[in-house]
Design goal:
about 20% strand, alpha/beta, binds NADP nicotinamide-adenine-dinucleotide phosphate, 14 strands, 11 helices, Rossmann fold
Length: about 375
């Protein structure tokens, strides 16, 4: 064990101002475990936090400075918890740590890692014993650390209305939905972390998938590597909703994972199937109706419906990640289907700034990872 704990901090004042510093390795108290962090994956939200732009949850304030990032894979090195008696066990963080089951509460947001609580871009961190899940053996640390936000959000978007344990899997001979011919269609927007996880989950579950992207190369990769049924370039085909209707013979998409936000939501409404679900997840094209930034100062009138839906998790299905029990359900599915998360690029711990900038540029396909230790 090194004597000190190296960690990155942000004053939420820009990616260039991230600082690498040292503290003492924290000691677990009763009900806590100390984890040696092996790998951290980045989410779009982490770049927002570091740039002071994560302002749409008006009840949250982090204080500064803050260790960024929420998603890590690591190993238990000390425990004061009866739940985790052994050291050497491989674990994953959960994002809103007190969200254990069912619907998220506003109070759960206060337990979010990497804002408002200190995050995981460090060599060591203490976690409450309830805020960890086991890593499936077949996944390496870089793959596993991609799951807590991106994959759980995709999983919740597809299965959130289903009872726990009865997730959608048309490849299961007992599945009721197997009767549906053609199979339900999932639409993913872009090829970032949430969308790629959604394409993998949906394909493994026997759904048809359509993907949009700004890049023809990424569309090819989604078709070849992830089994996407079809894809459309939203830069060259701005009216991509018409393509979705054509590709589904007018029926539309049954599950739309709305990661685009202000510029995409109306098109999603135009190409959703009757009775379909639009999961309001993200805001890559903006949070405001007419160029407003959608922050606390932007005012309710200017906030896009997509963000209004997600920030209180309302039906038009606003999505705020998912509870621990759903995460564990999803890990069972991943293991059964042997899904390997798509890691686009792995950066070293000292290269964290480059990793954040790489993610912010949007050239990635799937997830960007920072390796913290071997
Ligand atoms: N509510 C939740 O619980 C939750 C959880 C996770 C993420 N999110 C949000 O969901 C969004 C996606 O997150 P992420 O981590 O997957 O991001 P990411 O990995 O950074 O994904 C970025 C990709 O999205 C695509 N994109 C960019 N602008 C777009 C636009 N105008 N329309 C459609 N696609 C666009 C691009 O793909 P191409 O290069 O292929 O064009 C880009 O590479 C973010 O807004 C994030 O904050 C919310």
């Amino acid at each position: 064990m090194t004597a000190k704990n190296r960690q990155w901090t942000t004053k939420q004042d820009g990616l260039d101002n991230l600082e690498l510093g040292e503290t003492n390795i924290p000691e677990p108290k009763d009900g806590e475990v100390l984890v040696k962090i092996k790998a951290v994956s980045l989410n779009y939200r982490d770049t927002e936090v570091c740039q002071g732009e994560y302002t749409h949850h008006s009840s949250l304030d982090s204080g500064q400075p803050l260790v960024p990032c929420s998603d890590m894979a690591g190993e238990i090195v000390a425990s004061k918890s009866p739940l985790w008696k052994k050291t050497g066990v491989r674990v994953l963080s959960t994002f809103n740590q007190t969200h254990l089951t069912g619907q998220i509460k506003e109070s759960d947001l206060a337990s979010g890692l990497g804002f408002p609580l200190p995050g995981v871009l460090a060599q060591y961190r203490v976690f409450p014993d309830y805020a960890l899940v086991l890593v499936p053996d077949y996944l390496d640390d870089a793959e596993a650390c991609t799951l807590p936000i991106a994959a759980v959000t995709a999983w919740t978007s597809i299965n959130g209305f289903r009872p726990l344990g009865q997730y959608l899997d048309l490849t299961d001979p007992q599945a009721e939905d197997q009767e549906k011919k053609p199979p339900p269609v999932l639409l993913a927007q872009g090829t970032g972390g949430v969308s790629v996880a959604a394409l993998q989950i949906a394909h493994a579950a026997g759904l048809a998938t359509i993907v949009t992207s700004s890049s023809d190369d990424k569309l090819d990769r989604a078709r070849k590597d992830l089994g996407a049924s079809s894809g459309i370039n939203y830069r060259t085909h701005w009216e991509w909703h018409e393509f979705v209707l054509e590709a589904t013979e007018g029926a539309g998409a049954d599950y739309i994972l709305e990661t685009g936000g202000a510029d995409t939501l109306r098109r999603s409404f135009a190409c959703v199937a009757f009775g379909g679900t639009i999961a309001c997840i993200g805001y890559l094209s903006g949070k405001g109706e007419d160029g407003a930034d959608g922050g606390a100062e932007g005012g309710l009138n200017r906030l896009n419906v997509n963000v209004l839906a997600l920030r209180r998790n309302v039906t038009l299905k606003g999505i705020l990640n998912g509870p621990r029990d759903r995460f564990e359900e999803m890990l069972g599915f991943y293991e059964k289907k042997r899904i390997r998360p798509v890691v686009d690029k792995v950066f070293g711990f000292e290269e964290a700034k480059d990793a954040f900038k790489y993610l912010a540029e949007g050239a990635h396909f799937g997830k960007v990872v920072i390796k913290v230790a071997d």
